[in-house]
Amino acid sequence: MSALDTRDTVALVPAAGRGERLGPGAPKSLRHLGGEPLVVHAVRRLAAARSVAAVVVAAPPGAAETVRGLLAPVVSAAELVVVEGGDTRQASVAIALAAAPSHCDIVLVHDAARALAPPGLADEVAAAVRAGHPAVVPVLPVVDTVRQVGPDGVASSTVDREVLRLVQTPQGFARSVLAEAHATAATGGRKDVTDDAGLVERLGVPVHTVPGHASALKITRPFDLVVAHAVLAEESGVQRSASGMAGSRT
Ligand SMILES: Nc1ccn([C@@H]2O[C@H](COP(=O)(O)OP(=O)(O)OP(=O)(O)O)[C@@H](O)[C@H]2O)c(=O)n1
Ligand SMILES: C[C@](O)(CO)[C@H](O)COP(=O)(O)O
What we know:
By secondary structure, this protein is α/β, with parallel strands linked by helices.
């Protein structure tokens, strides 16, 4: 058994957002990709990770029962808890953390909107926490030129992209550290932090990075759904050829 096979991890899935940038419709986590809601894709992949013992989902307001019904068939070995999320992503994570089973010392926080993040990414992040890093984020290099623009839209300068990274989820934490970060945030009142690593960093805890994965893209705007469809199609093509089906159809 490798260290990756240690089932000591709970995955929190904030899924209570409206998805306004995706356009009108159901809450984003319930919108379909390839015939299934985004939250089903996200949780199936987390539950398939070798380190994940439990999944806690923060569902859209009024949709906890619906989400529980959708997810029960896909979690298999992992324990499932569904709660209603809050008004912000941060509030939804805090609610999910409070409902997390106490036997897990490692916590992953993973957006339902990053529905196609592969199970291996969750295992790599959890392994880095297990190895002693209290906060771990998956990152990708920046491939475009980046320019900082002033409020007038005119004054601008190029930023050195070599020192920049795009941050994904799942992000991993020692449970006590994440709990302290959220407790501090709840009393601090600042709203300018966009992820859990940012909250933890305010405690003075270093944030370690591991390589991210292109499939963990955040489905934010309609174009992202187009890309996600392509990723899904590629995934099922790979699975078909691995099982020999592709060859047998010619
Ligand atoms: N009150 C909220 C807001 C967001 N989220 C979750 O946080 C993740 C990242 O948020 P984002 O992709 O920005 O989703 P939305 O907030 O739904 O998007 P938008 O800002 O376009 O409405 C998503 O899985 C979303 O469901 C949440 O659980 N609770
Ligand atoms: C947590 C996150 O996915 C890391 O990139 C991101 O910060 C979520 O941002 P949003 O403001 O909820 O779109």
